[in-house]
Design a protein that fits this description.
globular; 2 domains; Rossmann fold; alpha/beta; disordered N terminus; 31% helix
Length: 334
């Protein structure tokens, strides 16, 4: 006698597919090894627990890191790994380190690579245009480093669709009204996460770089400026118009056939805003988890209907864990 749909084990007949993607630095990767280890353990339990409630949970990581630095963290095995701020997508984990220390990449989402190549953007062109601007008097004071140079890892720059550039905070020329330590607490508040605002000189550099690509007719995007985690740099990305966290999330929604309200994303910084909002910065209904003190991200999330903004003092891994359960419970209750 056939088993009715209502009596089937939910593990065999999922009612709701959910996609969960988390940033790493400052989000999943807590400063507390104990709490980070708890999140590592709990994600597997959560997947099984909510399967019994009719949820098919797919999860992955979405980060500015290169694939090699993701794999060194020995994270729970994901369904997807998004690296270089969205420029590369791997099916499952990104790769493996061999006993001799060499790295072997695993399956790439080739459809994503193909779409980015169609835009005509290259990192070599971006670097060339940027260096031309930095040779002018207006920007000659800026000290440029790539992310790979800052973290002493060439793999961080080894991507054909995006270039992340960093500028030492001490070398940035401030405009009238911009003060490094306005609140006199010996910390440059212009560059504190709670009060960060892009210095005018960096804003002008971004705008002129954008104009150069517009004039050349090359598809591109220039990200908002944001702070480097734990290092004294302001940074931004110049990339293919598809190579960002927001477009990568949209690609994976399509791959998994998941709608916005069954998509959960977690982050802590300005480069995470794109994956929480639509292309125009509007609300598409994605469920978001915000941890940390980033002022721009908190402001953007406050305007989203499905945002959960965790207390700024809350440990980031615990914030992700409780936030994930919060959103999954809401989905189950639909």
């Amino acid at each position: 006698m056939p088993v009715s749909a209502s009596s089937q084990n939910p593990l065999q007949s999922f009612r709701k597919k959910v996609l969960f993607l988390s940033d790493l630095d400052g989000t999943w990767l807590s400063k507390s090894p104990k709490n980070r280890a708890k999140l590592d353990r709990e994600i597997v339990k959560i997947r099984d627990e909510y399967a019994e409630k009719g949820v098919d949970l797919k999860f992955g990581y979405i980060t500015a890191r290169p694939p090699q630095r993701v794999e060194k963290e020995e994270l729970p095995e994901p369904d997807w790994t998004v690296t270089y701020n969205g420029a590369q997508v791997n099916v499952g984990d990104a790769g493996d380190f061999e006993p001799d220390g060499s790295y072997t990449e695993k399956e790439r989402a080739t459809a994503w690579d193909d779409e980015n190549r169609k835009t005509g953007f290259t990192t070599d062109k971006a670097r060339s245009e940027l260096m031309e601007l930095l040779s002018t008097e207006q920007f000659s004071n800026l000290s440029l480093k790539t992310v790979g140079e800052v973290v002493e890892n060439p793999a961080a720059d080894a991507n054909e669709f995006s270039l992340s550039v960093c500028f030492e905070q001490d070398n940035i020329a401030l405009a009238p009204g911009e003060e490094r330590d306005k609140n006199n607490n010996d910390i440059p508040d212009l560059f504190e996460p709670e009060t960060f605002a892009a210095p005018e000189q960096i804003t002008q550099l971004r705008e002129q770089l954008d104009s150069k690509f517009e004039e050349a007719g090359i598809g591109h995007q220039v990200s908002p400026a944001y702070l480097f985690h734990g290092k004294p740099y302001v940074m931004f990305d110049i990339a293919s118009p598809l190579a960002n966290k927001g477009e990568a999330v949209r690609f994976l929604q399509s791959q998994e056939q998941v709608d916005a309200e069954h998509t959960i994303v977690a982050g802590d910084g300005g480069n995470d805003i794109a994956m929480m909002t639509g292309r125009d910065g509007g609300d598409e209904g994605r469920r978001t988890i915000v941890v940390g003190k980033d002022a721009g991200l908190n402001q953007a999330a406050s305007e989203l209907k499905n945002a959960l903004i965790q207390p700024s003092e809350m440990d980031s891994a615990l914030g992700v864990l409780t936030g994930l359960r919060h959103h999954l419970d809401a989905i189950v209750a639909e």
